[in-house]
Design brief:
The chain is an alpha+beta fold. It folds into three domains: 59 residues, no CATH class; 100 residues; 167 residues, Reverse transcriptase/Diguanylate cyclase domain (Alpha-Beta Plaits). It has a five-stranded mixed β-sheet, with helices on both faces. Helix 6 packs antiparallel against helix 7, helix 11 crosses helix 12 and helix 13 packs across helix 14. The longest helix is centred in the middle third of the chain and has 51 residues.
């Protein structure tokens, strides 16, 4: 397979593939359905992929939602998103209604002041009568207007609080939707968004770097000890990576046993040093069954590094880091490799070996 063909396999437009699958399977274009199909095709969850395949063609929305609830804890909260527009629209409409009432009240008060001034200017009334009338009218009107204004302010504050609650719920929903449920790291969707935003400002992108990591011989854990142990391996790797990095560093699980780290305001030396810190931390972490004492063996990572300045787009950056990753795997695993242009020829020659 040529390098160009290999890159095409790697860089297949995921969005197009997801939409094509949805059309072929007769799945409606709801956001939650897109997420479900995206994750199923991404193969980040083998059980989800299998369950999705078992649905066959033209699954009902009920079946899709049940599958979503099973694999995505946030799916049962889709009403938060679907109802947010109506709730916000209702609150805004209520605010506008209150403001119109307040405007009407102030206009009436202004009209009354004008009429009162006209009476004061009239020579037909005695000074005492005018003064007594003015005091009574203005006292009642002012008190009534202030009371109405107070009510409007209270209602506006109440509606503002409700809208803030809606915002908090949507923020929480977005956080959950961008989180991998198993490792609690950011998921592939959040990673794709992060990488895409990186190149919005080409100057800033120059100071970013990408580390991609893959658990060596991960299939062995699942085949030998079962998926629960495989899940535990993923959890351990995620926890160690988080502890080895600053809290503000972006870390994601991008596939089944694949992870990614995005560094900002960095250079190649620092990036390589951080990748080595991660590799050593994983290598030094034992994986044992605390009850039985069974040692499941060492966990190691292969890592690929690429500076954002060496790529013209998010897609190219990921591809080049991935080439470096599989170069590290082909060189014996449990090591780091930095992307350089010469790797493309080597990658073309050894494509089958890398993917073995």
């Amino acid at each position: 397979m040529s390098a160009a063909a290999a890159n095409k396999v790697q860089t297949l437009d995921t969005a197009t593939m997801v939409l094509a699958t949805m059309r072929r399977r007769g799945i409606s274009g709801l956001p939650r359905n897109y997420e479900l199909v995206y994750e199923a095709l991404n193969a980040s969850n083998a059980r989800l992929t299998k369950d999705f395949d078992n649905l066959g063609r033209n699954p009902t929305q009920e079946d899709l939602d049940e599958l979503g609830k099973l694999h995505f804890p946030h799916h049962h909260r889709r009403g938060v998103v679907e109802g947010a527009h109506d709730r916000i629209s209702g609150e805004l409409e209520g605010m506008l209604r209150l403001l119109r009432q307040e405007q009407s009240s102030l206009e009436s008060y202004s009209k009354l002041l004008g009429e009162t001034y006209h009476r004061i200017s009239s020579k037909s009334a005695s000074s005492a009568d005018i003064l007594s009338s003015v005091i009574g009218v203005l006292s009642n009107a002012t008190g009534d207007t202030m009371e109405k204004g107070k009510i409007v302010v209270e209602h506006m504050v109440e509606r503002a609080r409700e809208m803030e609650q809606v915002k908090l719920e949507l923020d929480e929903y977005k956080r959950i939707a961008n989180t991998d449920p198993l490792t609690r790291l950011s998921n592939r969707r959040a990673f794709d968004e992060m990488l895409s935003n990186m190149y919005n400002n080409p100057r800033e992108a120059m100071y970013y770097s990408l580390i991609v990591a893959d658990i060596d011989h991960f299939k062995k854990f699942n085949d030998t000890y079962g998926h629960p142990v495989g899940d535990r391996v993923l959890g351990v790797v995620a926890a160690v990576m988080k502890s080895a990095l600053r809290r503000d560093v972006f870390v994601a699980r991008t596939g089944g046993e694949e992870f990614a780290v995005v560094l900002k305001d960095t250079n190649l030396d620092v990036t390589t040093e951080i990748a080595e810190r991660i590799r050593r931390a994983i290598e030094a972490t034992p994986l044992k069954n605390q009850k039985t004492g069974v040692d499941y063996g060492p966990i190691t990572l292969s890592l690929g590094v690429c500076m954002a300045s060496d790529a013209a787009s998010a897609e190219e950056l990921y591809n080049k880091a991935d080439v470096a990753l599989y170069t590290a795997k082909n060189a014996g695993r449990n090591r780091i490799h930095v992307y350089n242009p010469d790797l493309n020829q080597d990658f073309e020659k050894n494509w089958a070996i890398y993917r073995a």
